[in-house]
Specification:
Blueprint lengths: L11 E6 L5 H14 L4 E6 L8 H6 L9 E4 L2 E6 L1 H12 L3 H8 L2 H9 L3 H15 L11 E5 L5 H15 L4 H13 L5 E7 L3 H16 L4 E9 L6 H11 L6 H22 L4 E5 L5 H16 L1
Parallel strand pairs: 1-5, 1-6, 2-4, 2-5, 6-7, 7-8
Antiparallel strand pairs: 3-4
Helix pairs in contact: 1-12, 3-4, 3-6, 6-7, 6-8, 7-8
Length: about 300
Amino acid sequence: MVALKRLLPLRAVLVTGKGGVGKTTVAASLARYAAAQGKRVLCAEMVGDAETASALADALGVPRLDVEPVDVGPNLKAVLLAPTLGHQRFLRDVLPMRLLADAAMRSAAIRRFLAAAPTFPEMGVLYRLLDLVRAKQRDGSDLHEMIIVDLPATGHALALAQIPQSLLRVIPTGPIASAVKEGLALLMDPEKTGALVVTLPETLPVSEALELARGIEQHEIPLAQVFVNRVPFDPFSDEEREVVRAVLADRPPTLGGRTLERIDRARVALARLEREVKVPIATLQDVWLEGPRLAEEMASLMAVGEA
């Protein structure tokens, strides 16, 4: 059962999880679902640089994404959340003139330093995220009512909070510190931001998801929901399951037997999640599609689940 409507009031949803769990597809599906509910949605993919191949573009069915938002569909835009524009704003805060900052960003050596120096890539992303959150329409309303961020790896949800906090100990005052504090206030406000941990109904992915959920909470990022992707369809009652087991007991391995084992593992994994996490758990059954058709179908199932 999918239950994601509670995420709609948030300004920022950080989608995180281990590789291979369908994290990017979930981010794209959630973006399409929220846009269909009437929200002005920006779906962002966190990347190291704008030249990185975009998994989000593939999931949304667009040729490419850029560091500036592009239209994907009604109420839906998408963007690459790279540190570059954030670094430019950072330099504008540090240097006395905007022209100097723009000139500095044209220097390949400075760009390489900002990309490699500890904390600066995450700071660039945080600065850029703030810019997108602050963006307004002509009438003063938010240009992007909801920003869904597809994080590239498990640790980045933690790094976005942990590294800026470390920087504040070095630079406690001034325009940089003010921007960092504003960014952290956004990340740690449960009324505005929530982390969505994506996992699979298997033993190892669930263990990793629980570890990630604990780390997110320790760094004071609000954990909004756990999303269990690719849950196998279970047509059996408990009594029917025992009958099937008895039929398969004395036979060589079969596809049906392996399917039943997968269903059993999923039941155990879901039961463990329900015992150990305090936030709602959303589930979605396996969908045998790929690419943009998969994200569209998952978005439709999300809407059906809320009906």
